[in-house]
What does this fold into?
Amino acid sequence: MTNKTKLLLDKDSVIGPVGKRLYSTFVEHLGRCVYEGIYEPGHPCADKDGFREDVRELVRELHFGAIRYPGGNFVSGYNWRDGIGPLNERPVRLDYAWSSIEPNQIGINEFCDYAKSVGSEVMYAVNIGTGTPQEAGYVVEYANFPQGTFFSDLRVKNGHKEPHNIKLWCIGNEMDGPWQICHLDARDYGKKALETAKIMKWADPSIELAVCGSASSLQPTFPEWDRIVLEYTYDQVDYLSLHRYYENFGNELDFLASYHEMDKFIRSVVATADYVKAVKRSKKTVMLSFDEWNIWYQTKTQLKPWKFAPHILEDNYSLLDALAFGGLLCTLINNADRVRIGCLAQMVNVIAPIFTEKGGKAIRQTIFYPFAMAAKNCTGDALRVRGKTLVLESNAYGPVSALPCAATWDAERGEISVICVNISAENQTVEFDMRSFGRVKPLEHTVIHGGDLSAVNTLTDPDRVKPESRICHGAVTDTPEVELEPMSFHLFKFAVAV
Ligand code: AHR
It folds into this structure.
């Protein structure tokens, strides 16, 4: 059976700009994300500083705008001073967040250099658990002040004459979570975040700050936490952060419809932020930083204390996961008016698109591909896609569209990109009404599909799931028509014909 849908893509129906930061990621000192992930001295592909070139190449393919660092839960017990100075003098510590051994061989200087080498900016999180507002000011001074003060001179002494100029900063991580080291209630966090923000902006007024919103839409304190925190910090901060991970609990459609829940979550956070804006009579609009999102089989996570670089949170993603992930990407793009930062958590090994073998290979997981395709192609402005699609009845969310999709128009490149995910068991024919662009020429059609939804990429079979490029010999038209097989992810690219 084939279902036919007409989708309207109107050049003037702009949602908002899709900047590089919407395609960001996250590196935490957790498991094998840093050690044996990006950094493995002695590996045949390691550069002179111990960073793996094979991993770096894959990271570049993902076109990340920013990389959030160094945590995560880890940051709430982390002293940034442990990660500077000569490597052989750095302390080995117990990391309480993940019950691991932290040798501090990578710190702020090494990480900023690494991010630069892959073309990304750093989004640095300060410690609001065991940390103080003053230490947060010191790390801003160390990173961004030119020279002539204690901490900026220390940076120069440590070999970094030029400041790192980190623009994006997080005021802690998931402080609403009882699992957080030195968790606070909303009022205590709101007050501490405000004082921290003041000091950080005094140290460098050009920085942008993200304050902790809720760690998930499932938190019992959501959205009160967000309201209270913003009531303290609204004037000082630029972004409210939100996190959400999805998991397949056995109902396939509910899982594939995760994109719908993510959208609902974003709208509730926007409403909460705008409520505080109204209370404050503020002219400023706080944007959202979705600085942790992904699929995470959290119920299967088990820690392995007290090890160095333990194999933890190493989810192996299937084709089904890649389809659910594609829907989440669409939701982020469709909320580009308010979500300005989106961090795929995390980058390597830990719930990540890249997986490494100690001393061996680095491979692309299934979720690598939809992300790489979106980050490379879906640029410019997000367009609102209108049309009546096939609807499926989910258990968890009621009726949901069987065709999550998103579109962008990059006027500079003269290109329109469209992502469509067919999450139904039916073939779908889609006609794009692009008359507002005049006539368009099909440039690219890339598909991720396959009969076996449980298929995964492994070290021994790294290309089991990978995209297929289809030849585009479609005519120049204003209403291109495409076919989507059941359970498939598609990227279409069109050029405006002159
Ligand atoms: O990304 C894994 C963990 O998930 C992070 O450390 C934490 O912020 C979140 O709960």
